[in-house]
Q: What sequence folds into this?
């Protein structure tokens, strides 16, 4: 898996949970239990937590990664912040390919992560994701993007 794709997978997995993993000056509106339920369960939360902990540890001296992580934690629904984290993290992982491999392993291997990202104004039709149970499946849509006739399935 190329480093930019690893960065995208990390950003999509950790984004919903970052408000609970990063120290913010404001309180979080939703209860963690609600977010865990909405995002796929305890397994997904624990995976996101371990991945972000590893990223934050590896790049603790990298002001850009930590700052973007905090910005994303403050507004995890903002696609542009996820994209920014994915890009910067991907660039750092190019310099450290063994770290990219470790993150892929932590996310269940290459077959364990499926991510479809539709940019602004994109139109997708008949998108299907099939994976083994426990795999991460995400579809992210940019502003004014549309997706029709899609499905996500796990064995």
A:
């Amino acid at each position: 898996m190329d480093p930019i794709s690893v960065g995208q997978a990390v950003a999509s997995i950790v984004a919903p949970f970052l408000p609970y993993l990063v120290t913010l000056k404001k309180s979080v509106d939703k209860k963690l239990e609600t977010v865990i339920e909405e995002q796929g369960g305890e397994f997904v939360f624990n995976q996101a937590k371990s991945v972000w902990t590893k990223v934050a540890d590896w790049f603790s001296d990298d002001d850009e990664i930590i700052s973007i992580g905090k910005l994303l934690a403050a507004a995890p629904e903002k696609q542009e912040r996820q994209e920014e984290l994915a890009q910067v993290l991907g660039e750092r992982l190019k310099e450290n390919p063994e770290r990219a491999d470790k993150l892929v392993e932590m996310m269940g291997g290459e077959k364990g992560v499926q991510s479809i990202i539709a940019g602004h104004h994109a139109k997708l039709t008949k998108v299907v994701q099939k994976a083994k149970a426990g795999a991460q499946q995400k579809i992210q849509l940019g502003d004014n993007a549309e997706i029709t006739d899609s499905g996500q399935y796990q064995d």
